Amino acid sequence: MTITATRSTELDQHRELNADETAVKSVRARIAEAGVEYVYYQIVTLTGRVVGKVVPARHLPRNIEHGIQAHPGVVADLQVDGSGAMLAGSPERGECVVLPDLDSFGVLPWDTRTGFFFCRMYEPDHAPGDDGGRPVPIDARGNLRRVHAGFTARTGLEMRSGIEPEVTWEVPGLSTEHVPGTPHTMYHLEHMERLRPVYQKVIEYGRALGLDMIEGNCEDPGQLELNWMFDHADRTADRLILHRQICRRVAREAGATVSFMPKPADDRFGNGCHHNISLWDGERNVFVDPDVPGLHLTQTGKDALGGILTHAAASTAVMGPTVNSYKRYLHTGQFAPLEINWGMDNKTCAVRMPANGRLEIKSPDSMVNPYLSHAVLLAAVEDGLTQGIDPGLPRTTGTGVPSPFGSLPLTLKDALDLFAVDQAVARGLGSELADLFLRLKTREWERFCASVTDWERRMYGAEGC
């Protein structure tokens, strides 16, 4: 009798991970200890929104094996193209399996009856042909895991990152206006005091959800930047999503409004989300040579930096993913980059080296999808390592020499045009995810071009004639 071997799919492998007795016992113990009754099974869309389903906690055994079902259209926020067709799939397309990662389990500190998992998406076992059980390529979180694992397999290195998320708060009783000529609120502790109910609660909830909160400050009236310790890039991406969820919760509790808009007003600082990255071989940071004194970057670090600079223009579509993003770059004098260059602790540069061991990429803003941005950075870094790309000399104060890497694009449309032809960036996202992102954001640009804005009314309306 001939026995046909059953093909093990990536969905099967994920199920095997979820069958680990130690991991399951750990989750069950946390559910029992906190009194969790409901669990969110959540995925993240291309625009960074959190979607999913809620399931009673007593169904945990079934869900860790079978997950939940979801239509892939949610990945693109159910957006449609100009003809009305869905950008991700179609109404006739079957649903996907959304399977939780057990190590991502958490309990909401503001309601301990509710827990959550981050999940990855797969085609169901019954999908036609060889599709059954394969990862859904347009799942940005799953894509980052695969890209990072592939990067590590080829280079022996992993990326660790820390991010600096800036957000704008409108709090009752707090003026967010700055009068020109008066002292600015940057680092002003009196302004921090007025935001104390906000930042204390954000830090409290962050610590409860595993974010090792380290420092924070206010740079503009109403703007807060609260940071946590760097970690493996995959975990950092999850934590940024959690941070945004925390901020929205705190805003509801405080009767405040929180905005992640990259450029919230003409006279306000933009909201950046700088990515600080490093490469590690085990517990050795390969950007640092312990035998070299002073501020320096190893050859490996320079190669990685060369890749980042080479692909910075095309990556901007991901790092600045909204129409509004480009107003932050164009508002000069507010620490946002425009020229593609690098410098040793130079805040004017697109990539800054503030200390040994890390590179600070300043183009990402507060609307960035961290799964996409880290995947693109991994692809750019690997290209730099493979090609040995020279980043050139660091920019010094007063240097007027134009950067050989050019400037960042000035509109979302310009950025998308560059994104569409950069092969390294496409490798970071994969062809299907890159194509969906391009179509989704092109449609966003088209809708913006068709919209009449307040600026146009002021400029060309009755009072402007």
UniProtKB/TrEMBL annotation:
InterPro entries to which the protein is assigned, alphabetical: Gln_synt_N_sf, Gln_synth/guanido_kin_cat_dom, Gln_synth_cat_dom
A Pfam family hit: Gln-synt_C
Domain of life: Bacteria
Gene3D superfamilies, per database record: Glutamine synthetase, N-terminal domain, Glutamine synthetase/guanido kinase, catalytic domain
Signal peptide region: none
Keyword annotations of the record: Ligase
Family per similarity comment: Belongs to the glutamine synthetase family.
Name of the protein described by the UniProt record: Glutamine synthetase family protein
Upper taxonomic lineage: Bacteria, Bacillati, Actinomycetota, Actinomycetes, Kitasatosporales
PROSITE patterns: GS_CATALYTIC
GS catalytic domain segment(s): 140-465
SMART domains assigned: Gln-synt_C
Organism: Streptomyces albiaxialis
